[in-house]
UniProtKB/TrEMBL annotation:
Its EC number is 4.2.1.51. SUPFAM superfamilies: NAD(P)-binding Rossmann-fold domains. This is Prephenate dehydrogenase. Keywords: Lyase, Oxidoreductase. GO terms for biological process: tyrosine biosynthetic process. PANTHER family: PREPHENATE DEHYDROGENASE, PREPHENATE DEHYDROGENASE [NADP(+)]. PROSITE patterns: PDH_ADH (PS51176).
Length: 268
C-alpha cells in the first residue's frame, strides 16, 4: 500500500495529523524507533507501520518528520535520501534554525518545506487549528506543503522565512513557556504553589495555562526555553515587569474576552 502521508515519529503531534488525514480516507504510515508505538499508531488510524525509516520513505507521497527539534534536520535528510523524486518532506519543529542547518544535505530531487502545527496532540477539529508554513531556503515545496495541510482540513499561515517564524514563535510560544516558569518561580518564592492564590476568573485561566505548559516534558520545555528567540522575548518580558515593579501604570489595550473565559471555565 502506498502511503499518502508517512509519519516519522508516532508521538502526539503525528497522531493529531494522522487523525485528520485518516478521516479523509488517506492511507497513513508510521515509523518510530519505538516499533511498538508505531504499530499502535498504525492500528489506531488504519495504516501501516514500518520497521525502517527507509522503508517508509520509499512508500510515501509526503513525509512528515515529527521528531524533537534537535533531531529533525538529520532525519529529514535521511528520509529524503530514501524517497522517490518529487516526494514532499516537511518537519514539525517548534524552532527552525537548527533544522535548516542540519537539513541542507537533502538531495535536490525532493520537495521540502518547514511547517509548524500550532496545536498539541489533543486537537480533534482541524478547522479550528492552524499550521504555519514557510519555505525551506533554496527549495520548492512550500505550495505543496500548504496544500497538504489544507486538504487535511487545517488552516494555514504562510510566513516569508524561518527567521520570521522563529522570532514570532519566541514572542508567542516561547514567551508563554517563560511566563509559566516565571509564575511558578514567583509563587514558590512567596511560599505558594499554582493552586494557592484566590481563584479569580483571570487567575484560574492563567493557572490552567501554566499547569498545561508545566506538564510538558522537561526536554520539550528545555528546548523551547533555551532557544535564542525565547531568550530575546523573555528579556523583553523581564524588562516590562521591572517597569511595573517600579510603578509604571497600565499601557496596553485589548479586546474583552470575558464571555469566552467564563464559558471555558464553566465547561471544564
Amino acid at each position: 500500500m502506498e502511503c499518502r502521508v508517512g509519519f516519522v515519529g508516532a508521538g502526539s503531534v503525528a497522531r493529531a495529523l494522522a487523525r485528520a488525514a485518516s478521516a479523509r480516507g488517506w492511507p497513513v504510515c508510521f515509523y518510530d524507533i519505538d516499533r511498538e508505538r508505531a504499530g499502535e499508531a498504525a492500528s489506531q488510524y488504519g495504516g501501516l507501520s514500518f520497521s525502517s525509516l527507509q522503508g517508509l520513505a520509499a512508500e510515501s507521497e509526503a513525509i512528515v518528520v515529527a521528531v524533537p527539534g534537535p533531531a529533525a534536520g538529520g532525519v529529514m535528510v535521511e528520509a529524503a535520501r530514501s524517497s522517490r523524486s518529487g516526494t514532499l518532506v516537511v518537519d514539525t519543529a517548534t524552532f527552525k534554525r537548527g533544522v535548516v542547518a542540519a537539513a541542507r544535505g537533502m538531495p535536490p530531487r525532493v520537495l521540502a518545506a518547514l511547517t509548524h502545527p500550532l496545536f498539541g496532540g489533543r486537537a480533534s477539529r482541524p478547522e479550528k487549528h492552524y499550521v504555519a508554513v514557510m519555505p525551506f531556503p533554496g527549495r520548492e515545496g512550500v505550495v505543496e506543503a500548504e496544500r497538504l495541510y489544507r486538504e487535511m482540513g487545517f488552516n494555514t499561515i504562510r510566513l516569508r522565512s524561518w527567521e520570521e517564524h522563529d522570532r514570532l514563535a519566541g514572542y508567542s510560544i516561547g514567551l508563554v513557556y517563560a511566563l509559566a516558569e516565571a509564575l511558578y518561580a514567583a509563587l514558590e518564592s512567596g511560599g505558594l504553589d499554582l493552586d494557592s492564590p484566590l481563584p479569580s476568573t483571570t487567575y484560574r485561566v492563567l493557572g490552567m495555562l501554566a499547569q498545561s505548559v508545566l506538564s510538558d516534558s522537561p526536554d520539550l520545555r528545555g528546548e523551547i526555553l533555551s532557544n535564542p528567540s525565547t531568550r530575546e522575548a523573555a528579556a523583553s518580558l523581564a524588562s516590562a515587569l521591572m517597569e511595573v515593579a517600579r510603578g509604571a501604570g497600565p499601557r496596553g489595550r485589548g479586546r474583552s474576552s470575558y464571555n469566552l473565559l467564563y464559558r471555558l471555565l464553566e465547561e471544564c
